[in-house]
Design brief:
The chain has 166 residues and is mostly helical. It contains 8 helices and no strands.
Length: 166
Protein backbone atom coordinates (compact mmCIF):
# COMPACT_ATOMS: atom_id res chain seq x y z
CA UNK A 1 0.00 0.00 0.00
CA UNK A 2 2.82 2.38 0.81
CA UNK A 3 4.53 1.40 -2.42
CA UNK A 4 1.41 2.28 -4.37
CA UNK A 5 1.13 5.70 -2.73
CA UNK A 6 4.82 6.36 -3.38
CA UNK A 7 4.38 5.19 -7.00
CA UNK A 8 1.48 7.61 -7.46
CA UNK A 9 3.64 10.50 -6.17
CA UNK A 10 6.48 9.47 -8.50
CA UNK A 11 3.90 9.27 -11.30
CA UNK A 12 2.96 12.89 -10.64
CA UNK A 13 6.63 13.84 -10.77
CA UNK A 14 7.01 11.99 -14.08
CA UNK A 15 3.97 13.88 -15.41
CA UNK A 16 5.48 17.19 -14.38
CA UNK A 17 8.77 16.23 -16.03
CA UNK A 18 6.98 15.39 -19.28
CA UNK A 19 4.97 18.61 -19.06
CA UNK A 20 8.10 20.73 -18.62
CA UNK A 21 9.60 19.20 -21.76
CA UNK A 22 6.38 19.72 -23.70
CA UNK A 23 5.28 16.13 -24.21
CA UNK A 24 2.16 16.33 -22.02
CA UNK A 25 -0.48 19.01 -21.72
CA UNK A 26 -2.34 20.19 -18.67
CA UNK A 27 -5.72 21.80 -18.29
CA UNK A 28 -5.72 25.13 -20.05
CA UNK A 29 -3.34 24.19 -22.85
CA UNK A 30 -4.66 23.82 -26.35
CA UNK A 31 -3.87 21.07 -28.79
CA UNK A 32 -0.82 21.91 -30.88
CA UNK A 33 -0.50 20.47 -34.39
CA UNK A 34 2.79 18.67 -33.60
CA UNK A 35 1.38 16.87 -30.55
CA UNK A 36 -0.08 13.36 -30.57
CA UNK A 37 -3.68 12.74 -29.58
CA UNK A 38 -2.47 10.14 -27.09
CA UNK A 39 -0.32 12.71 -25.27
CA UNK A 40 -3.24 15.12 -25.26
CA UNK A 41 -5.61 12.55 -23.74
CA UNK A 42 -3.00 11.26 -21.30
CA UNK A 43 -2.20 14.79 -20.17
CA UNK A 44 -5.79 15.34 -19.14
CA UNK A 45 -6.31 11.90 -17.57
CA UNK A 46 -3.00 11.06 -15.90
CA UNK A 47 -2.80 13.83 -13.29
CA UNK A 48 -6.24 13.09 -11.79
CA UNK A 49 -5.65 9.33 -11.93
CA UNK A 50 -2.35 9.60 -10.04
CA UNK A 51 -3.99 11.78 -7.41
CA UNK A 52 -6.96 9.39 -7.08
CA UNK A 53 -4.68 6.33 -6.82
CA UNK A 54 -2.70 8.10 -4.10
CA UNK A 55 -5.79 8.84 -2.03
CA UNK A 56 -7.35 5.42 -2.59
CA UNK A 57 -4.13 3.74 -1.43
CA UNK A 58 -4.31 5.83 1.73
CA UNK A 59 -7.97 4.86 2.18
CA UNK A 60 -6.94 1.21 1.78
CA UNK A 61 -4.40 1.66 4.57
CA UNK A 62 -7.04 3.17 6.84
CA UNK A 63 -9.69 0.55 6.03
CA UNK A 64 -7.23 -2.34 6.29
CA UNK A 65 -8.55 -3.04 9.79
CA UNK A 66 -12.17 -3.26 8.53
CA UNK A 67 -12.25 -6.12 5.97
CA UNK A 68 -15.96 -5.83 5.11
CA UNK A 69 -15.54 -2.27 3.79
CA UNK A 70 -12.23 -3.05 2.12
CA UNK A 71 -13.60 -5.26 -0.68
CA UNK A 72 -15.24 -2.50 -2.73
CA UNK A 73 -12.37 -0.07 -2.25
CA UNK A 74 -9.81 -2.77 -3.08
CA UNK A 75 -11.59 -3.62 -6.34
CA UNK A 76 -11.83 0.05 -7.31
CA UNK A 77 -8.17 0.49 -6.37
CA UNK A 78 -7.09 -2.42 -8.56
CA UNK A 79 -9.02 -1.16 -11.59
CA UNK A 80 -7.81 2.43 -11.22
CA UNK A 81 -4.21 1.33 -10.63
CA UNK A 82 -4.14 -0.68 -13.87
CA UNK A 83 -5.79 2.13 -15.85
CA UNK A 84 -3.29 4.61 -14.39
CA UNK A 85 -0.35 2.43 -15.38
CA UNK A 86 -1.63 1.96 -18.95
CA UNK A 87 -2.29 5.66 -19.45
CA UNK A 88 0.98 6.58 -17.72
CA UNK A 89 3.08 4.38 -19.97
CA UNK A 90 1.26 5.70 -23.04
CA UNK A 91 1.72 9.31 -21.97
CA UNK A 92 5.04 9.44 -20.14
CA UNK A 93 6.63 6.46 -21.89
CA UNK A 94 9.67 5.05 -20.10
CA UNK A 95 9.62 7.76 -17.41
CA UNK A 96 6.59 6.04 -15.92
CA UNK A 97 8.14 2.55 -15.60
CA UNK A 98 9.30 2.90 -11.97
CA UNK A 99 6.01 4.49 -10.83
CA UNK A 100 4.15 1.72 -12.70
CA UNK A 101 6.14 -0.98 -10.92
CA UNK A 102 5.47 0.63 -7.56
CA UNK A 103 1.78 1.14 -8.26
CA UNK A 104 1.30 -2.50 -9.30
CA UNK A 105 3.70 -3.92 -6.68
CA UNK A 106 1.03 -5.32 -4.36
CA UNK A 107 -0.77 -7.15 -7.17
CA UNK A 108 2.09 -8.93 -8.94
CA UNK A 109 4.89 -9.56 -6.41
CA UNK A 110 3.01 -12.44 -4.73
CA UNK A 111 2.33 -13.93 -8.17
CA UNK A 112 6.00 -13.74 -9.14
CA UNK A 113 7.21 -15.51 -6.01
CA UNK A 114 4.34 -18.00 -5.69
CA UNK A 115 6.36 -20.82 -7.26
CA UNK A 116 9.23 -20.29 -4.79
CA UNK A 117 6.84 -20.40 -1.83
CA UNK A 118 5.27 -23.63 -3.03
CA UNK A 119 8.70 -25.18 -3.58
CA UNK A 120 9.81 -24.23 -0.06
CA UNK A 121 6.60 -25.68 1.36
CA UNK A 122 7.11 -28.97 -0.52
CA UNK A 123 10.72 -29.12 0.68
CA UNK A 124 9.64 -28.60 4.29
CA UNK A 125 6.98 -31.32 3.96
CA UNK A 126 9.51 -33.73 2.46
CA UNK A 127 12.02 -33.05 5.23
CA UNK A 128 9.39 -33.56 7.93
CA UNK A 129 8.40 -36.86 6.29
CA UNK A 130 12.06 -37.99 6.30
CA UNK A 131 12.42 -37.04 9.97
CA UNK A 132 9.21 -38.91 10.85
CA UNK A 133 10.45 -42.03 9.06
CA UNK A 134 13.80 -41.74 10.85
CA UNK A 135 11.95 -41.50 14.17
CA UNK A 136 10.16 -44.74 13.33
CA UNK A 137 13.54 -46.46 12.73
CA UNK A 138 13.01 -46.95 9.01
CA UNK A 139 16.25 -47.69 7.14
CA UNK A 140 17.98 -44.98 5.11
CA UNK A 141 17.88 -46.99 1.89
CA UNK A 142 14.15 -47.56 2.30
CA UNK A 143 13.58 -43.82 2.81
CA UNK A 144 15.67 -43.04 -0.28
CA UNK A 145 13.59 -45.39 -2.43
CA UNK A 146 10.27 -44.51 -0.83
CA UNK A 147 10.55 -40.71 -1.04
CA UNK A 148 12.90 -40.46 -4.03
CA UNK A 149 15.49 -38.36 -2.17
CA UNK A 150 19.25 -38.55 -2.08
CA UNK A 151 21.09 -40.63 0.47
CA UNK A 152 23.14 -37.60 1.52
CA UNK A 153 20.00 -35.62 2.31
CA UNK A 154 18.74 -38.43 4.56
CA UNK A 155 22.10 -38.60 6.32
CA UNK A 156 22.18 -34.84 6.87
CA UNK A 157 18.67 -34.88 8.32
CA UNK A 158 19.60 -37.85 10.49
CA UNK A 159 22.60 -35.96 11.85
CA UNK A 160 20.44 -32.89 12.53
CA UNK A 161 17.78 -35.05 14.15
CA UNK A 162 20.30 -36.93 16.25
CA UNK A 163 22.00 -33.72 17.39
CA UNK A 164 18.62 -32.29 18.47
CA UNK A 165 17.75 -35.52 20.23
CA UNK A 166 20.89 -35.62 22.43
Amino acid sequence: MYAQAFGAILGLIACLYEYVYGNLVVIGNRFVPGMDYINFICGYALYPLCIIVFFISLINLILNKKPNQLKNVALLNKILAHITVIIGILGCKFYFIIPALLILYQYYIPVLFEHDLKREEREANRQSAIVELLKNNIGKHTIVKLLNVSYEEVEILELEYCSKRR
